[in-house]
Amino acid sequence: MRKLLRAFWFIITAPFRFLFWFLRTVWRWIYGIFSEVRSFFRSEPEDTPLPDSFAKAIENPTGIFYHLEALRKHLLRSVAVLGLTSAFSFYFTPKIADWLAQPAGGIEALTAITLTEQIGIFMKVALLSGFTLALPYIALEIWLFIAPGIGPKARLYGLFAIPAIGVFFAGGMLFAFYIMLPAAIPFLISIFPDMGMLLTPNSTFSFTIGLMFWVGVSFEFPLVIFVLAGMGIVDARMLITQWRLAIVLMAVLSALITPTIDPLNMSLVMGPMIVLYFLSIGLAVIARRGR
After folding, report:
1. Are 140 and 66 in contact (CB under 8 A)?
2. Is pLDDT of 169 > 60?
3. Mean per-residue pLDDT over the chain, rounded
């Protein structure tokens, strides 16, 4: 009779024991992750000067392989997410392509001259939109790679800066689309007004996508300075003293990015870059305080 009651009690309490085991396992898993995250943000890296770090790497080159393996894993995950976001963008690619063709007169103003031109444009547009969606995650993977080498506060600043990376990149692309392209395309067409021009999808979209991408990348400059300042490579004082050289470099970069040779379009690129440069000085001050 006792064995029967014990078996009956075991059957009745089985769901509760399973629920207790499941909740305890989930709690241990969450607590373990929380402990690892807390330890990660509190741990202090070895504060070794940069020349000494290079000297150690030269003396013991096998230690570099560990970091290369970690970098490979981060890059593989980034490429995988980029592939997923690009595939997700396939559904919206026709609408995005029609929007990108508006500065040139719309998609109906373009004439394809090769059989594979349309599929090539489709993939370029999907890759651009996929990269824009995946950029915050790619920035997260980059942060995970460099975070062990910077201070706890700099890690926290870098983590909070990840959403801003997507905002700055999207802001740069929108600036190129709404400000630069409406000024650049009429200028290019007006050089020889009597000459007929056949706008092909390949040339038009390559021009538009390339300009939007590189202007978006240039808008990431303040965040790059923020990360470098957190790592101790640059500081605000150096940026202030070298502002003349920075303006010259920005002028050269604007000339490379700008699709036209007129000073108006170069100024449209160079003006925001100068503003972003002085914004990066403030971010460098914040990063150095957290170092």
Report:
1. no
2. yes
3. 77
